[in-house]
């Protein structure tokens, strides 16, 4: 019974490694977990049955397993059948090569130990478990460096290092059991060693899948945070547009009353009072009129709203812009880019003695240039390629930056971040095509 359990576990590990190996070269065709689980189970079951039913027929086993796995993987993955056949041959060829290497290694070690102690024996099952662990390591290395899967790409180096505790611990235990196996004469204890070592390899597989699931969940949570940040920015800007509309509606009502008043003064020929009244309301018009007009309603709403906010906070806004009508960038992305850039600039410059924000908006024939330069009073810390600041809410700041970059990359644009000890500059270029 133990022999069959050992065989099933070994083939199970090989089947899972096969599925992981295919993931190096292609993405899954289906994303729903029940469908993925069903196809994976069918693949594992097909490999196990083929191995045991054709145990004594190596050639027949190859001619059955390779086509069977190729068809199942062509259904599971976004692969053409001939590519699936090529990958199957590559995997089982590599698997056989590793097994042969470990067989030769085991023979060499056994011959060496026998020359030292003729009575010593080596548990071959432990070498088999070690070879399956190496199979797993090779596949994981390939997935880390070559995989198209988003899960592996989002696993950080520190997470990989923590995960490697499992295979290193497994390797240590298997080597320790190999060193002790020569002194073990009880067949039952040998079977326990064998089952325990194979079980450790299975645990490594489970730990890897658990790590990928955790990373996928964190990715979904992060994407939800980014979406909420976008919605928040858009809601704030739409409220600003609505407030501007309400302000214009009130002004229209005021203008009507003012015109009626001027008509009354004209009829009475009270020209002195009329001149005085026009001067008075003219000053109010200057104070309440939109200060910035780029000929783009949305940009005007954003920039004028932020301009009034800067005035209230004592921040000087310096602008350079040209005609911004008929942009090829969606309104939602304009909101994300401008709102986040100006919000970050306002918060950073507000902490300085010299509060200044310089905004450049230029539309050329083939590109849009957006640049925000602001004074700041804080140390810039970079973690890898990410900018970290001394803002109170670092996580929210990071989301804003990521939303900006996502919108820029959507149009094949580029960006640059530069800073010295006084000014921070974020520049964006979005091509037309």
Which secondary structure elements does this structure contain, and how are they paired or packed?
Blueprint: H1 2-25, H2 33-53, H3 58-76, H4 81-116, H5 124-146, H6 150-153, H7 157-163, H8 165-181, H9 187-267, H10 271-288, H11 297-313, E1 316-321, H12 331-349, E2 356-363, E3 367-375, E4 381-383, E5 386-388, H13 394-410, E6 414-419, E7 423-431
Helix pairs in contact: 1-2, 1-4, 1-5, 1-9, 2-3, 3-4, 4-5, 5-8, 5-9, 8-9, 9-10, 9-11, 9-12, 9-13, 11-12, 12-13
Structural overview:
The protein is an alpha+beta fold and 433 residues long. The protein has two domains: 2-146 and 158-215, no CATH class; 291-433, 2-Layer Sandwich (Heat Shock Protein 90). The protein is 70% helix and 10% strand. The protein has helices spanning 2-25, 33-53, 58-76, 81-116, 124-146, 150-153, 157-163, 165-181, 187-267, 271-288, 297-313, 331-349, 394-410; strands spanning 316-321, 356-363, 367-375, 381-383, 386-388, 414-419, 423-431. Strands 1-2-3-7-6 form a five-stranded mixed β-sheet, with helices on one face. The protein has a two-stranded antiparallel sheet with strand order 4-5.
